[in-house]
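Reviewer 2 asked us to include a model.

Predict the structure of this chain.
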Amino acid sequence: MPARMAAPTPGAADPLDLHGVVPPTVTAFDADGALDAETTAAHARFVVDHGVHGVFPLGTNGEFALLGPDERDEVVRTVVDEVGGEVPVIAGVGEPATRRTVERAQAAERAGADGVVVVTPYYYPLDGDAALQHYRTVCAEVDCPVYVYHIPSKTGNDLTLETLAELAKIDNLAGLKDSSKNVPWLGQAVAAHEDLTFLAGSDSLLKPGLDLGCTGMVSAVANAFPELVVDLYEAYDAGDRERAADLQERVYNVRSAIKRGPYMAGVKEALSHRGFDAGPLRSPLRRMDEDDSEALREELVAMGLVQ
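Predicted model (C-alpha cells):
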C-alpha cells in the first residue's frame, strides 16, 4: 500500500499552525450601507459550521478598505465573539500608513484576534527597505503572530524574494498569504522558508498551492461554498490527489461563475442564492443586476450547488 501523502504542515515559526481552509469572510451591510455586525458574525458562524479551519475577517472580500477604523474594530470583535476559540481568527489590519496599521493591529489583538494579517501598504510605491521597515515596526508593536498579505495587483507593491528573506528574520512574522498568482515566485518562496506558513490566496491555485507547499488556502469560493473547498483540502490531506484535482476543477467552474457582473459581487450573490443575505456591497462597489443574478443562480443549480 502506498504511503499516505498528507498536506504540507505549517512552518515552525507559526504558533497558530494555520492550515486548511481559511475564508476571507464577508462584511455584511444593511440596506442603507451601515455595518451589520450581527450578520457579519453569522457568516463567520456559517463557514465554521461547514468545517473551515480558520477565518480571516477584513480581507479583500471583507471590503476592509471601505470601512472606517471603528467599523473595522467592531468586525474583529464580533467575529472573535462568535467563533474565537473554535478556529483561529486572523484579522486584516493593513493600512497605507504604518502608524495606522499599528493602531488597527493593536486593536485587533486587544479584541482577541489570534493573529493579524498585514497587507503591503498601498497607493504609494515602496522599495524593499520601506516594506521591511513597515513590517518590523508593526511586528514590534504586537505580541501576536503577523502574516504578510501579498497582493501586488491591488496594492501596486510587489515583494521581491530578497525582501522576503529579510522579512523572514523578524521574530513574530509567522507566514505569508500570497495572492500574486506568480507561481514561480511562490514556489521559490516556500522552498526558501520552511519555517514560515504559506497560504494560497487565489481559488485558481488551491491544489497547485498545496503541491508547492502551502499549508492552506484563503478561498473566496469558500465564503459561499465552504464544504466544497473543505472537501478539496481533506481529499488532498488524505492522499487522494485525483479527487482533489477533480474538486479543483469544480472550484474553477464556481470561480468563473461568481466573477460574472461587477467586481466582487459574486460571493454575496451566491450566498443569497443559498438563503444567506449579507446585504449590499459598500458603495462604490455594487451587487449584480437581476439578469446577472439569475444567470448565476442557473449556473449554480446546474452545478448542483443550490436548488
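The longest strand covers residues 173-178. The chain has a mean pLDDT of 97. We have added this to the supplementary material.
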